[in-house]
Write a structure and sequence with these properties.
There is one protein chain. It is built from four helices and ten strands; from the N terminus they run H-E-H-H-E-E-E-E-E-H-E-E-E-E. The protein is α+β, with helices and mostly antiparallel strands and about 190 residues long. The relative contact order is 0.19.
Length: about 190
């Protein structure tokens, strides 16, 4: 009987630690902006060798006096910001700040970038996107529908999330940091 009680107590303590410990522990993630979509690694080089060459080229200080060709100016390449916003607190306890931007990359894929965020940590936080604005609670989120982009990688820092292929970003988009076990919004960002 004592063994059953001890095992039960250990299980309860483990679940309690899983639920409560994120409030005291920050997870910092610093992902670079996704550059892989913008470049091709030559077959005879490794990614590390390419990085070394690029770092050496970056260190060169030279002035170029050539004009850009007309056609190059009209064919802009690189990431395009589609919508941007800032994280806001969901309430007095569940807080969030930092920038949020949806990008279309050069290869046509779309990525959500959370930049310099700081969110109250919690158990099993998820990054959701939902059409529309004014989403302040679980009922509103469920009413409009949402797509989960993945678990929040860290409650502090910068990170990237891929949109599903073919996803059409609506004119009004809300990003939600959501606690899955408790069904609570931690922070939201209305993108325009």
């Amino acid at each position: 009987m004592q063994i059953v009680v001890a095992v039960g107590a250990i299980a309860v303590l483990a679940v309690a630690w899983w639920l409560i410990s994120p409030l005291f522990i920050d997870e910092v993630v610093e992902e670079d902006f996704p550059r892989a979509a913008m470049g091709v690694i030559p077959e005879d080089m490794t990614a590390e060798e390419v990085e070394e060459v690029m770092m050496a080229a970056e260190a060169v200080d030279a002035t170029v006096t050539e004009d850009m060709p007309e056609s190059a100016e009209s064919e802009a390449t690189g990431p395009v910001a589609l919508a941007t916003g800032a994280l806001q607190d969901a309430d007095d306890f569940h807080r969030g700040s930092g920038g949020v931007t949806a990008y279309r990359l050069e290869d046509g894929s779309q990525v959500l970038r959370l930049e310099d965020i700081e969110v109250t940590n919690g158990p099993d936080l998820r990054v959701l996107v939902a059409p529309g604005h004014g989403i302040t609670n679980r009922q509103a989120l469920q009413a409009v529908g949402y797509i989960e982009l993945g678990p929040l990688k860290g409650n502090i820092g910068s990170q990237n999330y891929d949109f599903p292929p073919g996803y059409q970003i609506p004119e009004q988009l809300t990003v939600v940091i959501y606690c899955k076990p408790f069904h609570v919004l931690f922070a939201t960002a209305e993108l325009r």
